[in-house]
Amino acid sequence: MKRTTALLVVVCCLVVALLVGASTGVSGVAGDPFAQQEEIDPDDVLITADVDAEGDAVWTIEYRVRLSSDDEEQAFEEFRTDLEANPEAYTDRFRGRMETTVGAAANATGREMSVSNVSVTAERREIPQEYGVVTYRFRWGGFATVEDGRIAVGDAIDGMFLDEESSLILSWPDSHELDEAAPAPAETRDGSVVWVGPVDFAGGEPRVAAVPESAVSSLPGGLPILAVVGLLVVLGGAVAYVRRDRKSPVAEDGSTAGPSASDERRDEAATDDEADAEAAADDGSTDDTPEDDESSDGDSADDGDVPPIDAELLSNEEQVLRLLEREGGRMKQKRVAEELDWTAAKTSQVVTGLRDEGDLEGFRLGRENVLALPDEGDAEDGNDGDGDDRDAGRDASSD
Question: Rounded distance, CA 336 to CA 338, Å?
């Protein structure tokens, strides 16, 4: 029990000396506070103040002793047993001393402060040798000042002293970045600075200031580049969408149409077909009337006699040419679209390509576009064979 009590006194004296001495501007630890404690040989003390964006700080004081002898192990185990059996006795005593420390700091700074969430724990830890670690923790309200997002730390522990076994770590929120630190820390980490004793802070020290990160720097790494790439992808998608509508249509078997005319001719041909359909509707004519006329001339076979076209074996152009062959060499363009179950635009595009290649001819018959195989064109255009009327009909269809 004597060793257990000695350990508790040593730890409490260290914590209070560091904090009370700092807040009053008096050296916190004069010499080695453990010199008269033969049972305990302290190795190091790690003091951490984790400051949040409101200026409050969670303080953690770790007292570490290497368990290199049986006596040290026994003393630590007795202390841990007593702590676990009656934790309130230790936390109440520590809270009282910290309230004295924080009260003195509040008077010195003229700022309202508080102590809360006090705890004391003891554990064995390998770092890498085996240590006994006693951890004191509490929340210090109002520890730092905050103005326009800038966190200023240090006035509450002005003139603090670290002995050769102690280290101090001051940290700030991830949303902030270091602005200044005085004196120069032994180490600057991502979100914290470290001083390693012995350090005798002068008046106005230690001091740390952290400011909010800028809007750009607060973005995850590479995000501005990703935003630019994303914009390029969106623009590329828009261009691809426009081009897709201007490409050759794809047949049901996945094959693409053959050579086509320019985009302007395809658009004009599609517009011409739509105009013809609208004109036919205005005149009261129907799709059945022209087809009946064509049937009456004996130019087309009965629909029931036309064998089905195997789209899986024929290209779009071959389907049109085969259909015209079965119909005697000529056929209305509208009926071609109906027989092949195509849109007017697709039909016009395929037909235009065939006409550009010389595999198909076309002329106007009233309001209808009539398609004809080259060998049948002279017999159907009603001229003397010089081809002028047929050429004029093709030009009209293109327009």
Answer: 5
Give the other-Cβ count within 10 Å of 112's Cβ.
8
The span from the first CA to the last CA of the chain, in angstroms, equals 109
**pLDDT of the residue at 49:** 97
3-state secondary structure of 42: coil
Bond before 33 cis per omega within 30 degrees: no
Nearest to 267 by CA among 179, 160, 349, 190: 349
Alpha-carbon distance 250 to 313, whole Å?
14
| CA 354 to chain CA mean position, Å | 50
Encode pLDDT of 67-82 as tens digits: 888 888 898 899 899 9
Contacts of residue 10, Cβ cutoff 8 Å, sequence gap at least 6:
33, 34, 37, 40, 42, 63
Per-residue pLDDT, 4: 40
Report DSSP letters for 119-155, one per residue: EEEEEEEESSSEEEEEEEEEEEET-SEEETTEEEE-G
Asked whether 141 and 109 are in contact (CB, 8 A), the reply is no
Note the pLDDT of residue 393.
42
C-alpha dihedral over 333, 334, 336, 342, to 10 degrees?
120
The 8-class DSSP code of residue 301 comes to -
Contact 29, 161 (CB under 8 A): yes
Number of neighbouring beta carbons within 10 Å of residue 255: 14
Low-confidence spans in the chain with pLDDT less than 70: 1-42, 215-312, 375-399
The tokens describing 146, both together, are 């905050």
Residues written for the chain: 399
| pLDDT, position 72 | 86
Determine how β-strand 57-66 pairs with β-strand 44-51: antiparallel
Q: How far apart are CA 162 and CA 200, in angstroms?
A: 6
Alpha carbon 334 to chain centroid distance? 52
**Alpha-carbon distance 258 to 348, whole Å?**
13
User: At 231, phi and psi to the nearest 5?
Assistant: -65, -40
**Helices then strands, each counted (H, E), the chain:** 11, 16
Q: Give residue 20's identity as a one-letter amino acid code.
A: V
Q: Which residues of 162-173 are buried (b: 16+ CB within 10 A; e: fewer)?
A: bbebbbbbbbbb
- Those residues whose C-beta lies under 8 Å from the C-beta of residue 228, and which sit 6 or more positions away, are none
